[in-house]
Amino acid sequence: MTEPWPITHLRPRNITRHMSPRSTAGTVAASGFTQRVSVPAQSWTIIYEGILVATEEQIRVWDYTEVYLEGGSVPILVPLVGDGHYGADTGDVSGAVAAGSTVMTVGRAYGGILGGYHFSINERLYRVVGVTDVGGGYYNFTFRPPLREDVPSGWPVFFAALQCKCRLASDDEMTMKIEAGRMGTATVRFVEDPNAD
C-alpha cells in the first residue's frame, strides 16, 4: 500500500496542480501553418511550496520521508489540501469502465459537480471536463486524464480527500537547508506515477 505524504507535519503553504498537456505537430505547410493534435495522455504535476520545517518533530518526519522516497523510486500519495468536496464525499461507478476511457457514468453523485472539479479513483486524480444528467441520480462524466486502469461497476469515486499517486520529480527534491535556528522552508515537486500497483 502506498504511504501518504505526512500532511499533518509537512503542510505546504501553496499547492500548484496541473495536467501536463501532450500534443504532436505535423510538418509546416507551405502557408506557414502547422497542425497540432492534442493527445489525451496528460499526466499530473503537483508542487508543494512553502513547507515549513521548524520543529524537531517536523525535521524528523522530513528526514524519514526523504529516506523512504529513495530519491523518487518509491511512490507516495499526494493529497490536494483544500480542494474537493463538492457537496458529496463519494459516488460510485455505474457499469465497468476500461482503462483509457475518458467518459463514465457515476451514481449517487451530487448534481452540482461541474467541469473543472476533481475526483479520485484508486489513488488517481482526474478533472471533470463536462457533466450530463442522465436521470435517476446518474451523471455522465467526461474527464481527463484518461482512466489509468480498469474500474469495475460499483467502485467508489471520491470527491473529498482527493489524492494522486506520485513520485518525486527529481532525485534531489527533498534537499533542504536548515538554518542555524533549525528552521527551513522547502518546495517539493511531484509527478504522477504511471505505474499500476
Q: List the uncertain runs.
A: none
How many structural domains does the protein architecture include? 2
- Percent of residues in helices comes to under 10%
Strand order of the largest sheet: 8-9-10-7-6-11
At CATH level 2, the architecture of the largest domain is 2-Layer Sandwich
Major pleated sheet: 6 strands, antiparallel
Q: Indicate the CATH topology of the largest domain.
A: Phosphorylase Kinase, domain 1
Name of the CATH first level of the largest domain: Alpha Beta
Explain what this protein looks like in three dimensions:
This protein is mainly beta and 197 residues long. The protein has two domains: 1-22 and 39-81 and 162-197, Phosphorylase Kinase, domain 1; 90-160, Elongation Factor Tu (Ef-tu), domain 3. The chain is built from one helix and 13 strands, in the order ββββαβββββββββ. The protein has one helix at 56-69; strands at residues 14-20, 23-25, 36-38, 43-53, 76-79, 90-93, 103-107, 118-121, 124-135, 138-144, 156-158, 163-168, 184-192. The strands form three sheets. It has a six-stranded antiparallel beta sheet with strand order 8-9-10-7-6-11, with no helix packed on it. β8 and β9 form a beta hairpin. The radius of gyration is 19 Å and the shape is globular. 25% of the residues are buried. The model has no long low-confidence stretch (mean pLDDT 87).
